[in-house]
Specification:
CATH class of the largest domain: Mainly Beta
Distance between the termini: 44 Å
Strand content: over 45%
Oligomer: single chain
Helix content: under 10%
Strand order of the largest sheet: 1-2-3-4-5-6-7-8
Structural class: mainly beta
Shape: flat
Length: 382
Amino acid sequence: MKKLMRTIIIISIILLLSATATFTQTDSVKVKHKNYPFLDINYHYGNVMGTNEFVKGDNLAGTPIKQFQAINLKFGFQNPGYSDWQKVYKGPYYGIGLYSGDFFTGELGYPLAAYGFYGIPIKRWNKFEIYSEFQFGLAWNWNHYDSISNPKNVAIGSPLTVYLDIGANAVYPITKHLDLNGGISFTHFSNGGFERPNRGLNLISPYVGLKYHMAGRPNTRAIEKPGNLEKSNNLYFMLGYGDHQIVEHEFDTNYYAIAGIGVYYSWQHSKAFRSGPGIDFNFWWGLTANPEGTPGPVGIDNLTVGLVYAPEMIIDKFSIITGFGIYAKHHLYGNFKQTYQRAGIKYQFTDKFSAGFNVRAINFMLAEFLEFNMGYTIKWKK
């Protein structure tokens, strides 16, 4: 089961990077215009947030893990609005990157991550620019939990984790091809609960870097408004599946499946954003596990019902999904007592069919499971 989940995660990351690659193809194949590639290197030095016992000092060294450093190397593109989706976001940048981290302790290892990134302009002045940036990928090279060699590491319980980074990036040109940039970022590592212990790592750091424009800079300030793009209100049906270990039995070896269906209606508020309410039905085989973590009886108590509101950022055929919900029915939490969150990606293969995955969590930090999904959409054009 572990190998299956790792394979699914890797396929999902390939899907993400493939979607990033389609952005470059849009510029270089469908329309014959000059591309504007760049290389970007950043150095991070920041704080490890004390969100679990391991980083607070309950580790083999007996000292808190408070600081980390990292290097990010990115290759990407920023073009002057050749495609409508670029015009919608007024000249975003996008590409792929490689992350290398150091927590100043061998108990965590020296993680590497490959990811796709997307930067959206917030404000432009004469030269100075500020962007929001989103990074999503896969991390490895961890010294993860092991009952014998690394028994205290409850933060990272698997060799593979999801890498998520959200931040703000300021850019200032210093030569014809070179920019000075810097900002602040929040980074999260977790495997979504498919292999515990999985308390995760949460990092916050300032960073500074240099960005080299290999073919000069695009004139993003002259980008025209997009044409009359299709807008629609959607009814979306989603089939989801996940696999996880129970939080209360994080040192056990029992894995439980989660399967469900969701129905969501969304209004398209703009060419880049839609949102709307939905309902989640999930069947959790682990909700009725015995006190020692072994499988228990299966029945209506395994069913959960969630009410959720789901914003969605539209980037061509690719979407960034979020959601905030409350469990209307839950055997362990009770009814209308526990909220949950969702964050992930979706790729629209056709007008009707899509695939993606989400991380489901409670309290914005504790991952419940990774939700791999397929979807079917019915549209009403506006």
